[in-house]
Specification:
The structure is a homodimer. By secondary structure, chain A is α+β, with helices and mostly antiparallel strands. In chain A, 16% of the residues lie in helices and 40% in strands. In chain A, the strands form four sheets. In chain A, strands 1, 2, 3, 4, 5, 6, 9 and 10 form an eight-stranded antiparallel β-sheet that branches. In chain A, strands 7-8 form a two-stranded antiparallel ribbon. A two-stranded antiparallel ribbon of chain A has the order 11-12. At the A-B interface, strand 4, strand 5, helix 2, helix 4 and strand 12 of A face strand 4, strand 5, helix 2, helix 4 and strand 12 of B.
């Protein structure tokens, strides 16, 4: 089967996270690769696209992001809920076999960055250093340098949740083991200018 | 009918926005009250609870937030999709009758802050001044000083979308007039520590 992964124009990249999905953050540095879950991810600008993510000082992935200066934000799908919860609950610092144990598989889309297989969308990010935000708020700002999506669920610049396999819906985390999948489409008329 | 609005403990306030809903931002200063839509809202800390929101320099509400130093983040519901799109499309600067025209009704929950009626959750916020973030990124950080929710859809510290009226589901904005409502619950087992 050919890959359904297609590039997304950078000016549409914000749409991959605009609806507030819980994300996976992955980073690689010095031979180590980690993947974590992050509900606190948010778009910050359209052009050039920027986003922000909260990385607590206790998470192992944070040091890899700081050292590499690059990371990936990906949008996991409903069928990955257990994987998302697992990578959010286990630290690479405690278990060097974390990725194997949690079933994470990686794919190559752009250089040496680690992209998590089976997600619906991926944003390659370059850190915009802001030491005050990072130390005081655990807040990391990045420019999006590349974007891709699974065309079965995002194409023509829009999510296609209403017609795609429900297993490809985005996840929206609450707490504990509780998530919601994204639901039904709601369309409202455009407002005359 | 008695009001279904109940206070939410501050340590649970992050859960009101953790699943990435599109929000309404309201502020009041100098006799003016405005309400805008914002998809770029995100939790930032648990205790004390903080959040962040992107307020473009072109939006009228921004000056009210800056001058008042306070604002409200509220979670609108599926049946308010037209209202959300309307307050996000019309500027109070262009139409002083914006709130009446878009059908916004206000309720009092805390002092003089303007809370939008009919939403499912409300977070009273006090700006944490960060001039660099505000001017460079249009990024505003705030501490949450009070939280309330409609107990028909949020109680015992959890959203109850799976059993509540679908009209009370949160909205997740994509672009144009396109939203998704939040969908089905997904529960995964807790990871043994």
């Amino acid at each position: 089967m050919s890959s359904p992964i297609r590039p997304v124009p950078l000016e549409k990249a914000y749409r991959l996270i605009n609806h507030g999905p819980t994300a996976l953050i992955s980073a690689r540095y010095g031979g180590e690769t980690d993947v974590m879950a992050a509900a606190w991810v948010c778009a910050l600008d359209f052009d050039p696209p920027k986003l922000m993510v909260v990385l607590d000082k206790s998470v192992y992935t944070r040091a890899l992001v700081e050292d590499a200066g690059t990371f990936v934000v990906q949008v996991p799908v409903a069928s990955q809920a257990e994987l998302v919860h697992a990578v959010g609950s286990i630290s690479l610092g405690d278990d060097p076999q974390k990725l194997a144990r949690t079933g994470v598989e990686l794919v190559a889309l752009d250089g040496d960055l680690p992209f998590v297989a089976g997600c619906s969308a991926w944003l390659a990010c370059r850190l915009v250093p802001e030491p005050h935000n990072q130390s005081r708020y655990d807040l990391f700002i990045a420019e999006v340098t590349g974007a891709w999506a699974d065309e079965r669920v995002f194409r023509d610049g829009h999510w296609q949740f209403e017609t795609a396999d429900p297993a490809l819906r985005s996840l929206h985390y609450v707490a504990g083991g509780h998530f919601y999948a994204i639901g039904e489409a709601i369309e409202v008329p455009e407002i005359p200018g």
